[in-house]
Structure formats: structure tokens, C-alpha cells
Write a structure and sequence with these properties.
The chain has a single domain, classed as Rhopdopsin 7-helix transmembrane proteins, CATH 1.20.1070. The relative contact order is 0.12. The radius of gyration is 23 Å and the shape is globular. It is mainly alpha-helical and about 350 residues long. About 5% of the residues have low confidence. It has 10 helices and 2 strands.
Length: about 350
Amino acid sequence: MFPQAVADKLTLIIQVIVMFSAKYALWVLTGPLAVTTVFFNIYILLMSLWNYRQKKQWSASETIIAALCVADVAHQLVCYFWMTMDEVDRECLVGQNLYTFLVLLIYSLKFTVMWDTSFLTFYYSIKLVTTPNHCYTQIQASILRHVTLAVFLIPLCGLGTCMPMLIVFHHDNDTTMNRDCGVLIPDTRSGQVYEVVYVLLTDILPGLLMVKCCISISVHLAVHLRHMKASTNGAHAPKLGSQLRVIQMALALVVVFIIFLVVDLYVQYKIAVHHENIIVLAFFFTSAYTTATAMVLIYGKKTFWKVLIREFNACMDEYPCLSCLKVPEEKTQHGSTAKVKN
């Protein structure tokens, strides 16, 4: 009897050490991702404003990208602040209300990031793909006329979607060894139903929209390349110029989103069904997603990408030992290429 009690105590201590080590490691790893997310998104915003001052033009896509960058930065700052507070205040002495508010704000901002990304992909699919369906075209035109209104409504919808968590979810009453401050757990039937609805609205629906846009863009690219190759009789490879870059960016956004979606669904499943408290892991993968999204957006804007690579290489030139990290710069190609305003 006594040895069994000692063994249980040792097992509990080992679990505590492993759990704290994992949370600490995730907190440390999220730090560099937070820095890169904020840096890349602030860079996009500043470059967009600089372009506006130079050209006095501001497109609908830039409005969506600006909204996405603001949501990414806000999400990352609030998320890492919560993770830091949770790591420092392990006894939750500050109070559950503040932590709960931060968690709800993180979920709301995540909703905004997901829908802003899908809205951007939807916008590019409209600009790239033409459809003979007049009714569908009218709907698309109506959406494009109200882009600014849409990017303001998305965060409001996210906040409204997350508010029911205060009613149907409950605070995590687990032991201190596996507790995060302010975390709400769907431990009731109504909570689990809401968790499914939240995942559908935040992950599945924007994911389906992005997949649909990805298929439309891919079909458009295949048809366009076939027509161009036929018109040149296969004499040389067809060139799409900036249009191809936008297509690559849109498809890359979809691929990054799908990878994140698979991981996020697994985490949400473990939380809702098995009641495992792994919310820190969810925040870590969301931070990785926002970093990857920002890098894809920079690549999609050729001017942004060239300036970033040039400045990066200039920094590497200051330290000869790091010259091997320099990135080859793209050479400007002359000729008539198809363009799309992005």
C-alpha cells in the first residue's frame, strides 16, 4: 500500500515537471514567432502606406491586407501577453476575469484572422477568374463595393460569435499542475454543441471558401496556360508576370491555411472531447500560421519582397561570417507580361 502511494506521488511529480517543461518550451518558441509576425505585418502596413503616398492609390486588396495585418498583430500581442502572464502567474493570483477576457479576445481575433484570409483569397479569385453566371457576378460586384464595410463587420462578428462562451463554457477546475488561467472548457452538452458551431464558423467555413477559390484559380491558371501555349505553338514557355505571382500567393495562402486547419481541428478535438488542456499548443500553432501568412503576403507583393531581400542582404554584408545566408535577388525581366492589380 505504501509503495503504491509513493509510486503515485512520483508519477504525479513527473507529470508536473513534464507539463511545466512543455508549456515553458512552447512559450519560449512562441517568442521568436511573435517577433517575426509583428515585424512582417508592420512592414507590410508601412510599405502599403508608403506606396499610397507615392502613387495616391489604394485598392480593395490593400484594404483587406491592412485589416489582416492589424488582426495578426493584435492577435499575436494579446496571445503572447496571455502566455507570459500564465507562465509567470502560475497560481492565477491576478484573477480569472482578466484571463478569461484575454482568452475570449484571442478567440475573437482568431476568427477575424481566418475570415480576413479567406476574404482576401475570395477577392483574388474574383479578380482572376471570370464567370458567365450574371447573378453570381452581381453578387461578387456587390461584395467588392463594400470591402471596407466587410473588414469592419468581420471582427464584430468574431466578437459576437465568442460571447456565448461565457455562458456555455466553464472555468477549468483541474488541478494546478494542468491548469491555465482563464481557460474555458466545454464540459457540458451545450458547451460541446457550441464548440462544434464555433469550429464550423471559425475554421471549416472559411476553409471551404478558400478551397473553392483555390480550385477556381487553379482551373483558371491551367486554362490560361493552355491557351497561351497554343497561341505560341509551344515555341517558348508562356509568361504570366505579376499575375502568376498573385496566383502563387493565393494558392500558398490556401495551402498554409489547410495545414493549420488540420492541426487546429486536432487540438480543438482534444479539448472538446478529451478535455485536455492544450490551449497553449493551439496558440503556438496559430502564431506559426500568422507568421507564414505574413511571409506569403510579402512574397505576393513583388515590390515588398525585393525591398525586404535587398535590406536583408545589406544587413548580411555588414557581417562577413553571415554572407552565406544572403538570398539571391530576382532580376527584372523585360517583356509584355500579364498583370493584375494586387
